[in-house]
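Reopening this ticket.

The earlier resolution said the output was attached, but the attachment link was broken on my side. Pasting everything inline this time so it's all in one place.
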Amino acid sequence: MNKKTVFISLAGLLGIIFIMFFSLKIFQIVYFNEKYYKVPNLKSYTVKEVTEALKNSELSIKEAGEEFSDLPIGEIFLQEPEANSVVKKGRTIKVWVSKGKALVQVPNLVGMNYLDAKVIAEQKGLIIDKVITVKAQGEYNEVLATDPNTNTLMTRGEKISFLVNGAEQVVEVKMPDIIGISFDNALEILTKNSLIVGNVEFTSIPEVQKNVIIKSSVKSGEKIPAGSAVDLTINN
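Inline output:
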């Protein structure tokens, strides 16, 4: 192959590359209406700031709505098309503005069963943190307190802790009237009512029959937890 042939082949190859390059440019000019742009990142800016920045641009923006997000109030948190997308001139970019983090008010969960309270808290977007159990009067698994307290404003995703009654349900009984009856009968009545005898003291009142109950530490008719001890004073 002589030099002339090599030169012609090389020139032809360069010509093909040249034609392909300019064909692509012509296609871009026609398809993109002579200009196309890369969409900038508008997130974390306000609509006012973006409008000012794009006033000499072929792009425009339109506020499409407001939603809660992790960004501060008034800042753009979502845009369409996304940043770095290639668009034609005159394209309108839709933006959504942040209303700030979604706040929820801690509902009144005190007195509820913990399992029900847990469901409600999670529906509010709160995360269950510590669950502390104590023995107290009331229903088993009853919520005694929350941290933060009822009506506190919290951000979705924050943690809430519970203080829960871990004791089995406390059954209350009514104190029977045992004044004036013998100790043996009083003991039988207390036992039937799920009560026990506590401290026993003796006193002497001549005009009162011996071995009868003249005083108890719990008044007749008063409600007390089953299993409680009742102190007695017996006439001797």
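Reporter confirms the inline version is readable. The chain has four helices and 15 strands. Residues 1-31 form one domain.
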